[in-house]
Structures are given as C-alpha cells and as structure tokens.
Amino acid sequence: MSLSFSPGPIGVFDSGYGGLTILSQIRKRLPQYDYLYLGDNARAPYGSRSFEVVYEFTLQAVRKLFEMGCQLVVLGCNTASAKALRTIQQRDLPFLDVNRRVLGVIRPTVESVGMLTKTRHIGILATEGTIKSESYPMEIKKLFPDVVVTGQACPMWVPLVENHEYDEPGADYFVRKSINKLLSLDSSIDTVILGCTHFPLLLPKIRQFLPAHITILPQGELVAASLENYLFRHPDMDARCTKGGTCRYYTTESTSKFSDSASIFMNQPLQASHIEL
Ligand code: DGL
User: Model pTM greater than 0.90?
Assistant: First the structure.
C-alpha cells in the first residue's frame, strides 16, 4: 500500500527555550516518537509582542516545521497558542495542508481545571501577551462557565529565568509581588495555572510565596497527557508520526548560545542546528 504522505517527527515550537519544559514532559510520556524542536530564540521573547507579529512569526515556524516533514505541530508556547493558534487552525491550515494539525497548550491545560477547584476561583500567571489575549478565561468559560478567572501578568519572570536569576534571592521580590497582586484581586483563588513555559523553573519560589492550600497545575504533564489522548483518538495522525525515539533541536539564534541556555531547561547539554525562518 502506498501512502499519500510521508510520516514525520512531531514538531514542537516555542519562542525560545521555554518550550523545552513542555517537550521534556511530552518525551517522558511518549518516548517512542521522533521530535523536532524549533526555538525562535533570535526573536524571543514573544510575551510583549503584538498579535500581528506573534501570528506572523508563529506561522513562519509552522510552515518551516511542515517543510521539514512534521505532520503534527504542537505550539509549546503559551503566547503563540494565545495569539496565533486559532487563526492558523481556521484560516491557514486549509491552505497549507488540510491533513496536518497544529495544537496548542492552553486547551489541554484548562481541561481538568474545573474538577480541581473547589472555590470555583482560578488564577492565571502568565506573560503580558497571554493575559491581555484573554485566551485562558475564554477557554475556561467554554468548559466551566461557573468558574471565576483572574489573570496577573508577570513581566519580570521570563527575564529572571533567561538571565539565570531564577533561583537567586533577588527573584523573591518579583515572584512575591506578582503573586500578592493576583491574590489581592481575588482572595478566593484555590487553583493557579502557570500559563508560561518558563515558570516551572521558578516553581520552588512560586510554591514558597503561594499559600499552601493553593494547587498549582503542572502544564507540561497536562499537555503530554492530552497529546497521548489525542494520538490515541486519531490513529490516522498517529500513523503520520514516526517512532524512532529521536529528538533534534533547531534554533534561529547561534547554536552555541542555544546549547548553553537550553541546558538549564533540560539539565543536560543539547546540540542544536541553526535555522532561518
Ligand atoms: N514561551 C513563552 C510563553 O509560554 C514565554 C517566553 C516569551 O515571552 O516568548 O508564553
């Protein structure tokens, strides 16, 4: 039987390094697939960029991953998922290739939230762009209309991680400040979503400053579980994904810079290739 498509690796895209926190959880859960990671490090961060720019950059990355043979692409970036996913799915995919798929991280993250909150009050900590997009409240309202959602932008948190300051005492001030702002907006919050790929690195500090009764959702694990479920429900797409257990890394920045910083996110040295979008 001849196939009308060539199976390929699963593409994982992020503005930079943060998507590695998503990729590592996906690989932990689904080690059998091949993966191709693309970080647009040269143009990161995306968090404070406009809708138009994030959409344009993300579409370029999706096209590139398709050209490289990916049949399925996961936008492992909250900002790209918030600002570009819907338009790419609805407007661009029918022209690019109706049989390929692009998935995001927001829907999988919120799917279980309604079961976890008892007070029905949820907090979102994310980049300015993700908060302004209102994507999290919109997705949560679709699934759990009774839940009250409050967002707080944490503009200093990504720079703290990118500058290797995330476990230094100076980070305490910014982490505490954003958490206090969130809780001053709604003191009934009992569940918090870390809606940014970088924030897992700040987890010890976030945990320290959030009251102990507040649950923090682990985004990477939720995205990985949702992808497994998606591939199980879509055997046609599963057949389009190669299974050799490999992972290749591409960056729009210099490869040595990527390797140095990426190791913080993966706890191991990574070799990347340079790519132009
Ligand atoms: N990856 C982005 C996110 O999850 C954070 C970094 C950025 O602002 O580009 O929102």
Answer: yes
